Amino acid sequence: MKIKKAVIPAAGLGTRMLPITKSMPKEMLPIVDRPVIHYVVEEAIRAGIDDILIITGKGKRAIEDYFDRSFELEYYLRERGKLRELKQVKEIGEMVDIYYVRQKRPLGLGDAILHAEKHVNGEPFAVLLGDDIIIAKKPAIGQLMKVAEEKNTPVIGVEKIPWEKVNRYGIVKAKEIEEGLYRVEDLVEKPLPREAPSNIAIIGRYILPPEIFDALRETPPGKDGEIQLTDALRLLLKDRSLLAKEVEGKRYDVGDKVGFIIANVELGLLREDIRKRILEYLKRLNREN
Question: Fewer CB atoms inside 10 A, N or C side of the chain?
Fold first, then answer.
């Protein structure tokens, strides 16, 4: 199962981050000096993917502008000798081939992925959600791609979470077949802790087969009239096996306000140009409190 294409759903309304997402796409919220979606696209590129489809929606034009060339800005920087900044903005516009399609109504993640069917063109593909930034030595989606290629089976990324948080995630019932690798037996969307089959949560990385589109079309709308990818994966399980891989790395839920702040601090500490100043501030804050 060779993966050449990635799909990034970016049409959601970002209600967890209101009010800022009233006028700014949640995918464009800054983590240090780059928008959230930059990290996600960069992960796909590091995994060897060079064809990316972003599913956008109303009010998401800023995403397209970000990955486009900006000749006026490039001219301004060149004229003023700001060559380091010029290099940065040119690289963004030349990162990878990016295509766009619009989800006209917010009918859920499953519906957004359905919009990728023509672009995928019958091939297996990767899905990366913009709410999760995963910092790892080997790209998170690359870890799943390796399993998919070796086992010739679709794979979902998972993480063990505290039991009290299972009602925030899709949860898998699964049997461990290798360390950190599971054969999925069932999936449940946001169960109550007492009803959850495990504390193994689905995170925003998937390797999916083209058959997922038929499953999505057969999936009835769930809560709030949205089509849930988790429900479609349950249908897919009837016809083929599905694996779950514990992703190695540090995951940041940047669609959550506290997670967003933590990501800014910790990813800022990874930057040599600002690390010292952030540490000095945190030490001072600790002393004062």
Answer: C
Name the phi and psi angles at 248, rounded to 5.
-85, 135
Q: How confident is the model at residue 118 (pLDDT cuts 50, 70, 90)?
A: very high
* Structural domain of 229: 5-255
Domain membership of residue 202 (yes or no) is yes
State the amino acid at position 45 in one-letter form.
Answer: I
Secondary structure class of 104 (helix, strand, coil): coil
CATH of the domain at 23: 3.90.550.10
Confidence of residue 97 (pLDDT cuts 50, 70, 90): confident
C-alpha distance from residue 51 to each of 16, 44, 48, 119 (Å): 29, 9, 9, 10
Asked if the structure places residue 289 within a domain, the reply is no
The H helix count followed by the E strand count for the chain is 11, 13
For residue 45, give every residue at least 6 positions away whose Cβ sits within 8 Å of its Cβ, in sequence order, or none: 95, 96
Does residue 199 sit within a domain? yes
Mean pLDDT of 146-173: 93
Centroid of chain to Cα 42: 11
